[in-house]
Amino acid sequence: MQTYQYDQTNICQPTLAPALATRELEVFYGDKQALFKGSLQFPKHRITALIGASGSGKSTFLRCLNRMNDRVATVKGRILYHDTDINQRQINVYQVRRQISMVFQRPNPFAKSIRENIAFALKQQGLHDRAQLAARVETSLKAAALWDEVKDELDQSALALSGGQQQRLCIARCLALAPDILLLDEPASALDPISTAKIEATLAALRHDYTIIIVTHNMQQASRIADYTAFFHLGHILEYSETEALFTRPQIKVTEDYISGNFG
Amino acid sequence: MDRMKQNLHQASKASYQDYFGKSISLFCASLVGMLVVAILYFVMTRGLATFTQNHISLRSFLLGQTWNPTQIGANGQPEVGALPMIVTSLAVTLLAALLATPFAVGVALFVTEIAPRRGGQLLQPMIELLVGIPSVVYGFIGLSALVPLMRHLFGGTGFGILTGTLVLFVMVLPTITSLASDSLRAVPLDYHSAALALGATRWQMLYKVVLRAALPGILTAVIFGMARAFGEALAVQMVIGNAVLMPKGWLTPTSTLTSQLTTGIGNTTLGTLPNNVLWSLALILLVMSLFFNSLVRFIGRRGRMQK
Amino acid sequence: MKKGKIFSALIAVTITGGLLASCGSSNAKNASSAKASPTKITAVGSTALQPLVEQAAKDYQNKHSNVTINVQGGGSGTGLSQIQSGAVTIGNSDIFAAQQTGITASKLVDHRVAVVGMTPVVNRDVTVKNLTMAQLKAIFTGKVTNWKQVGGKDEKINVVNRAQGSGTRATFEAAVLKGAKALKAQEQDSNGTVQKIVSSTPGTISYLAFSYVNKNIKALSIDNVKPTATNVTTNKWQIWSYEHMYTKGQPNAATQKFLNYIDSKQVQNGLVQKLGYISVHDMQVTKNAAGTVKQQ
Amino acid sequence: MSRKTTDRLATGTIYAFVGVVVAILCGLIGYILITGIPDISWHFLTSAATAFTAGGGIRDQLFNSLYLLLLTLVISFPFALGCGIYLSEYAPQNWVTGLLRMAIEVLSSLPSVVVGLFGYLIFVIRFNLGFSILAGALALTFFNLPILTRSIEEALQDVPNLQREAGVSLGLSNWRTITKIVLPIALPGILTGIIISAGRVFGEAAALIYTSGQSAPTVDYGNWNFLSADSFLNPMRPAETLAVHIWKVNTEGITPDAVAISAGASAVLIVIILIFNVGARFLGQRLYQHLTASKSK
């Protein structure tokens, strides 16, 4: 096994206006540090992929971005959104999550009807107009490319859908709230290739309106859909650049070994 | 832009909701805690009065074997030896739990794993029915059916630890069964499939994977069952003979802490020694269940670590 | 939308219900004390006396609607300690207040409302029909352990005693044991349980109030005196006691009226005897707390 | 011994255990029903109890039992729910929480007569509630809380964490996520807890003898004003429940038909618990389907 140098990194600063940025983000689970000084800028209306082996800290990093780690870990450092450090106690975390929405690795629709899955959060925010709700359900299901498949069974339980459909429903559920940023944690890892392709197509269509940050195991997937890619290794972000550059001209040895499959 | 910044800093409806939810649930929890503290304090002050006001030595209370609170013994102190009751209470509780656990786990496995349809829909509600039968009914059925049976089978009077254990066995069965099946149901289905995929037989899967995973839950079920057995009075009182004597065998009349407590409490005057010692019995009960509780928790933690 | 509301409504109802019930308690109390028109009498204590007082109270309230009488059990000890602390209006007891430790009898006023006779009872398989007082004492002190020692068949004697401090036991020990220490044996609190145990366990002896003797068990004669009400009134049958209703100091007018009612001919010759007690009016002797019997 | 044999043996053992339990169950319930059902009649259910003559019924006791159960649940359920939610969702993992859990478990092992006496000295005497349904319900709350809290906590914990994350990640408050998403899924489990605790409340006697009392004054079933002394709804009146009645009839009863009354009342009790059990399950399923839109297809 080769020993790698972790102090050597290649992090680019995208010139595009950032939608979100982290400054020296560190995460601790008890005494164990899971993430070291992660500083990244995510350009607006672009897809950024976070790649790396299991346990490299990429999911941990992603979950910090909308404060999903609040209860399980200690998160230090700054997360800048609209010139505000949202990693502070006094920040309204619910507001953060409304703007920065998350789709999880395993599809987790609510045990409610398809319609209710989407309308639920809207109603909680005070939208009760039936016509408006119906419109939002339709547009977000269309945006997630699910409308045609489910439009006749909106009152069926969401749990009866296939895994791929459930995952797209989860995406639609986020979209209905019109967030700014969409975080996806390996959304396709539990799905078959056809469902995966559909999800990728959905994401590609969404990139014009949303800033998307996606964690993935699958390097082909990253190279297919992402504009920017960051490589995580053992809690360190070693390389971050435009996807094409990262895959064709990696500057760091670890990255090169990882993407060429020579890892370890 | 500014609006967004403001929103991020301002509390929203959701913040208030959460504040509300957290406070109300904390309020409930602390109220429940306070209730527990109140009743514990109550039992403790009364139970300790035996030692602080009546100056009974703890030793003679815990190790003495004669129980006769209204009479003065040879040493000039009232005779309040609780040892026979402590021994009997421990014996019937442990025996009932030991006896009931395999049956309860067996039924729980049947209900959750082997025949969830038939078992879950018919057997479990039936067993839960047992909880609702008043203890006095258990007592009288025990008295009119079990005691003669025991007398017939083993001689003696038919009253004693064995009969008490059997009655308690039936009484704790539903508690242990339903809590154990709850914890078995909570074992993720993936575990089952993973074990079966590795070629395990159903029993290996159940024993090595499912039961192992549900162990802490099953142990809690047993604690709750023992707790019920500990606290049960009316039924045991009728079949155990209710004589404060050291148990000399399976079927000699003896008495548990609770049965003596229930018998005596209406016939004594508050604030006097015969009444205070009854509260001391309740205190022993508390301390004992606390001990069991910690013990089972400790075992549970060890079991989980080894997994 | 409707669906969502149902659950929150459910929670809201239960929570407000809970809060209302817990604070409502004080409201309800205020309301009832504000009305305050019916006088409230609470009688607590002896379970043996409860049926009599309860039935008498029911009949009494039918005629006097301005009184609410609440009769509860709890045991003689509870009755005496509660009347001593003033928490209740009347404390029912099977024993003299002076016999109970921790009770200052001088502060309480005794109202004797009935007499109850007790008899030794045995399982039907016991062939003995009569015992001498000395034999009975020997059995309950553990000196005699087999029925053949007192003229019966060869069978072990199974003694079932009554709970320490209970009125029945105090009466029995005063009349039979006369200060000797009782054998350690089974102790049961209630007449019903003793009745069941004696009827189902061969060789068993215990003692019960007259009214609990039924065809499944056998009452014994002592020194050839039969346990009958007539024998109690003359003290030929010595195991009997009063049923007491204690008040703290002199009772108030309403309570006194109720006590008078219980002492009336109507109740003493009707209800008291129907329930298996003996009327205090029929007694030709009196007994005091020390157990001394005097001709009236 | 081969794995197959062990498997067969173990399955056989489980079946044997189940067989024994079923035999006990049928024997017990059968015994109660067979001895009791012949004594149940319309007259038995609808007439008042008598003190010393035969032919008394259980009307008041039956109603009191149901009313007391309702009141107990109304008082204890919200607190148990709040406490269960706190323990499952909010409580930090520290010694205070551990202590609270342990205290609750210890509470459930208190003998009922101690709870009864505590209730008597505190509620009946100190708070001056008198012997009343309310005092009884408060005492029973002590009983109910541990098992109810525990089963609610357990039911909540069984809901996958993914559901909570889904709610929270949409910007919903934790509270909304718990009440609107987690709770409906946990409902069947919570209902089981309620059934079990309700059964216990129904069968409890020792704690009630000193709190709600053991006499049943005549009440007026037409009087709906719950503040009026003879209204059947008045929570401040003493009330003998079915279980207490069974206890009383068995221990001190002098009615000639005590055995029949006790058997009939026990059978009625069992039948009611059965109805309650089945009803609650059915209702739980319906409510669950309603809340989760998971109609069986």
TrEMBL record, chain A:
Residues 20-259 form the ABC transporter domain. GO terms for biological process: phosphate ion transmembrane transport. The keyword rRNA processing does not apply. InterPro entries: AAA+_ATPase (IPR003593), ABC_transporter-like_ATP-bd (IPR003439), ABC_transporter-like_CS (IPR017871), P-loop_NTPase (IPR027417), PstB-like (IPR005670). GO terms for cellular component: membrane. SMART domains: AAA. The keyword Membrane applies. Keywords: ATP-binding, Cell membrane, Membrane, Nucleotide-binding, Phosphate transport, Translocase, Transport. This is ABC superfamily ATP binding cassette transporter ABC protein. Signal peptide: none annotated.
UniProtKB/TrEMBL annotation, chain B:
The keyword DNA-binding does not apply. It is a multi-pass membrane protein. This is Phosphate transport system permease protein. Keywords: Cell membrane, Membrane, Phosphate transport, Transmembrane, Transmembrane helix, Transport. Its main location: membrane. It is found in: Cell membrane. Residues 86-296 form the ABC transmembrane type-1 domain. GO terms for cellular component: plasma membrane. GO terms for biological process: phosphate ion transport. Pfam families: BPD_transp_1. Part of the binding-protein-dependent transport system for phosphate; probably responsible for the translocation of the substrate across the membrane. InterPro entries: MetI-like (IPR000515), MetI-like_sf (IPR035906), Phosphate_PstC (IPR011864), Phosphate_Transport_Permease (IPR051124). The keyword DNA repair does not apply.
From TrEMBL, chain D:
It is a multi-pass membrane protein. InterPro entries: MetI-like (IPR000515), MetI-like_sf (IPR035906), Phosphate_PstA (IPR005672). It holds the Pfam family BPD_transp_1. SUPFAM superfamilies: MetI-like (SSF161098). GO terms for cellular component: plasma membrane. CDD domains: TM_PBP2. GO terms for molecular function: phosphate transmembrane transporter activity. Residues 62-280 form the ABC transmembrane type-1 domain. It is found in: Cell membrane. GO terms for biological process: phosphate ion transmembrane transport. Keywords: Cell membrane, Membrane, Transmembrane, Transmembrane helix, Transport. The chain crosses the membrane at residues 12-34, 66-87, 99-123, 129-148, 181-202, 258-280. The keyword Lyase does not apply. NCBIfam families: 3a0107s02c. Belongs to the binding-protein-dependent transport system permease family. CysTW subfamily. This is Phosphate transport system permease protein PstA.
